[in-house]
Inverse folding.
């Protein structure tokens, strides 16, 4: 073999070795570089269902209140409640929001009391008065309609006059013989995402509800009086979130409601 051919063969061998080395590096880097894991992470983040499930697993649910494990969107009550013989019971309908719809609410605390019978109505956590109006229907066999609405109107900065007009429309829709209007609950919150002072707003709404009840000859009650501080906040220890009462608080609210419903039915 000539010197020239030996040099050419050597050069080819070196070039091939370099190509193999480079190829090996490319293959290895393809499997080990963080680009691959980053691409997968982006793909997961772009899938809403996966992100939602991950949030749930991490306990990041924001639609569940501290002392009620039922998601807010599922805290809905409608139709009759209570079992057993209710003959002779005072019948009532209900129109409310979370104060009435939550699993540990006054309505559920009152349910075992056979002196009363909830024969229909509609309550939905998070709903304003107009939203309940859109869902509720006539309950003609109710002696009393209990109207507990306006908390979410206050939160969402709905004008008080609008709330009162929707409360009046609910009363007309249900058609009960007697009406019991309920004051707004205390509030530890002085702000909301809609820019409302929830505590002051509840006081203003309650005064308007009381005036409206008086003008129509309806009954009015404040079952939260024992749990409200002079400044409108909850008494310490009576609310888990500054908005709703504890289960124990709601038992006390239910007692006050029982007295008020009985008086309104006369």
């Amino acid at each position: 073999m000539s010197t020239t051919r030996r040099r050419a063969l050597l050069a080819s061998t070196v070039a091939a070795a370099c190509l193999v080395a480079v190829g090996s590096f490319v293959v290895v880097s393809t499997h080990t570089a963080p680009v691959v894991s980053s691409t997968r992470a982006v793909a997961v983040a772009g899938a809403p269902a996966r992100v939602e499930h991950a949030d749930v697993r991490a306990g990041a649910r924001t639609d569940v209140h501290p002392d009620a494990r039922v998601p807010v969107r599922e805290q809905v009550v409608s139709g009759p409640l209570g079992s057993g013989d209710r003959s002779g019971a005072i019948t009532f309908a209900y129109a409310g929001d979370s104060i009435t719809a939550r699993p540990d609410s006054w309505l559920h605390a009152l349910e075992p009391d056979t002196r009363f019978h909830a024969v229909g109505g509609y309550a939905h956590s998070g709903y304003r008065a107009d939203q309940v109006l859109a869902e509720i229907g006539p309950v003609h066999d109710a002696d009393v309609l209990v109207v507990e609405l306006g908390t979410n109107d206050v939160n969402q900065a709905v004008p008080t006059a609008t709330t009162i007009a929707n409360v009046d429309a609910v009363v007309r829709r249900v058609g009960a013989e007697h009406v019991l209007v309920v004051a707004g609950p205390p509030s530890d919150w002085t702000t909301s995402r809609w820019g409302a002072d929830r505590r002051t707003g509840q006081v203003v709404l309650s005064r308007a509800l009381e005036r409206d009840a008086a003008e129509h000859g309806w009954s009015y009650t404040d079952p939260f009086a024992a749990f409200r501080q002079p400044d409108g906040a909850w008494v310490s220890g009576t609310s888990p979130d500054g908005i709703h009462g504890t289960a124990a608080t709601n038992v006390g609210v239910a007692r006050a409601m029982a007295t008020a419903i009985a008086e309104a039915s006369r």
